[in-house]
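DATA SHEET
Item: assembly model
Revision: 1
Owner: S.N.
Input lines:
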Amino acid sequence: MPEANYPDDLRYHDQHDWARIEGDLAVFGITWYAQDSLGEVVFFDPPEAGTTIQKDTSYAEVESVKAVSDVVAPLSGEIVEVNDALQDSPERINEDPYGEGWLVKVRLTAPAEADALLGAAEYRKLLENG
Amino acid sequence: MNSEALRQTPLHEQHVEAGAKLAPFAGWEMPVSYEGIREEHSAVRTHVGMFDVSHMGEVEIEGPGALALLQRLLSNDVARLEVGGAQYSCLCAEDGGVLDDLFAYRLGGDRYLLVTNAANHESDLGWIGRHSREVDVSVRDVADRYAMLAVQGPHARAVLERALRLELPPRMHAAAVGIGRRPAIACGTGYTGEDGAELLVDPEVAPAIWAELLDAGVVPCGLGARDTLRLEVCYPLHGNELSPQRNPIEAGLGWCCAEETGFIGSGPIAAARREGTAERLVALRIEGAGIPRAGNPVLHEGEPVGEVSSGTYAPSLEIGAGMAYVRSDLAEPGTEIEIDVRGKRRPARIASRPLYEKRS
């Protein structure tokens, strides 16, 4: 597993999710901290494309050998794409949480919600303060 | 429970140094994993791993009345336990419910050692104490006298004999040995389905033994891998498969119950054996996606018929698997069931036990 890192170009949710926003589309995933706390991911149960998801509510689950973790939507929208490669290789969430380990692509219905998300520095501070 | 209240094993510093993930377990701060549960699991299946299980309790029972007391308290026929032998038993309540499951070792003529589950150690001591008042026997809580290391895997014996210059007793036997110039007890037992030994050692020399075994290439393993390993071979865990609300018969532990000895709980247990039980403990495998977890409902033709007692991703099987209590008429291996995993019905089948069998 790589060392802790929180890229500056992402927006963060305090439930340890990230969003890479490009216009009214965004890619979601879980942060380095989230995958590290969970341990080796063995199963990602994705939602279906077309599903509407709501900011701050769970839209999927990731499971490690011992634990299940809800994945919380950092923003509201409609899922347009799911990372199908995770079906066979869920470990990508550990190996590359911001790249090949992305979870879903979403068409945002309320892009202004992003103002409430954290920047990388703020998210790091949140982790430091426990 | 706050972290100050948690007890630490004599190997706590070693765990922190190794970067272990620590978590509370039965009042102890214990390593859950080091490098990762799957790696540790596979080290034990293919090579050798070691577990700090110093949270386990030890009770020494000695005196002319020791055999009679244990025969009354333990489900197995303790009279068959030879000096240097090990025996698995349930400690049962009057109604046959399982208070704890434990190993009894006969260390000498009338000297026995019981290794208890950490969560039950205090209540076991109370139970044993209450039943030993009229008996010529001394019951000693010796939990602080021992650190406990489980060294498990196909290479465990070879590594232990070489690295610690030990002569190990055979499987299901125990022997007094010297480790680090201190007296220790080596037991040919374990909780992983692999060969190996459990060492009861002086807490003061435990760190040196741990370091020596690390140098010998033994992989440190946490309670996470301990749980996946035991689950694959269907060993019960008290608190999950076993509890005061379950008797050994429904848990599939009739083999360690000798009702003819008249132990406490033997009456209801004999009745359960004779008449059958409403539910039985089974192994199960998910057929496709999904991981069963403790507490998930088990369904048959859409109807609830039981509950998962332990569930996990099984690293050696590479599939979700576990154990469950189900209606006895559905306990046959091959029976199609569904597991309700947080609202999603996952097709599964009752499997034969153990789930994982070593290819020899």
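QC remark: Chain B is about 20% helix and 35% strand.
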